[in-house]
Amino acid sequence: MVKLIFKEDNLSMKDRTFGIIKPDAVSKNLIGAVLKRIEDEGLKIVAMKMIRMTKAQAKGFYKVHEGKPFYESVTDFMSSGPCVVMVLEGDDAVKKYRAIMGATNYKEAKEGTIRHIYATDIEKNIVHGSDSRENAEFEIGYFFNALEMKGD
Ligand code: GDP
């Protein structure tokens, strides 16, 4: 019989989500402010790096939005400068990080959320966060390999 040596680890693994500190936030020196909000809310940063996406990589990342009027523009923006990609861990991480970020449109974002405080544009809205566990796994795999993930 095959022994499922990783079964227990998988079951006990906390929820993970994927986030980006977008190029507008990096250019405004907001990396530290965003990370502080995330850490203050109790999410753990378990992987992180600064990258600059090519247009093709940005298009692959936002493939779900292909065909939408803002697809070209948002992928130009996402490849316009460096950004910080990260994996966050914690209880109910996907939902929790979405709540910390606030609504896509900063005008609708609740007070105290990252987008409410820092965003000035529906497109250049400071941060990205996965909207489901399934998408989080895809997005983590898009940017990180197993060696880059902190294991403890
Ligand atoms: P998110 O999950 O809250 O980031 O929002 P979506 O998945 O709906 O959209 C992805 C990203 O595309 C957003 O974060 C914005 O940067 C951009 N975006 C969304 N809606 C619009 C829009 O109506 N106009 C423009 N210009 N950009 C948009």
Radius of gyration: 16 Å
Helical content band = 40-55%
Structural class: alpha+beta
Query: Low-confidence segments, ≥5 residues, pLDDT <50?
Result: 1-12
End-to-end separation in angstroms reads 28 Å
Series of secondary-structure elements, N-terminal to C-terminal? HEHHEHHEHHEH
Q: So what's the overall shape?
A: globular
CATH architecture: 2-Layer Sandwich
Mean pLDDT: 92
Bound molecules: guanosine-5'-diphosphate
Topology-level CATH name: Alpha-Beta Plaits
The CATH class turns out to be Alpha Beta
Description:
Strands 2-3-1-4 form a 4-stranded antiparallel sheet. Helix 4 crosses helix 5. It is built from 8 helices and 4 strands, in the order H-E-H-H-E-H-H-E-H-H-E-H. The relative contact order is 0.22. It has a single domain, classed as 2-Layer Sandwich (Alpha-Beta Plaits). It has 152 residues and is an alpha+beta fold. The site of guanosine-5'-diphosphate (GDP) has 9 residues, from helix 5. Major role in the synthesis of nucleoside triphosphates other than ATP. The ATP gamma phosphate is transferred to the NDP beta phosphate via a ping-pong mechanism, using a phosphorylated active-site intermediate. Keywords: ATP-binding, Cytoplasm, Endonuclease, Hydrolase, Kinase, Magnesium, Metal-binding, Nuclease, Nucleotide metabolism, Nucleotide-binding, Phosphoprotein, Transferase. Homotetramer. It is an enzyme of class 2 (transferase). InterPro entries: NDK-like_dom, NDK-like_dom_sf, Nucleoside_diP_kinase.
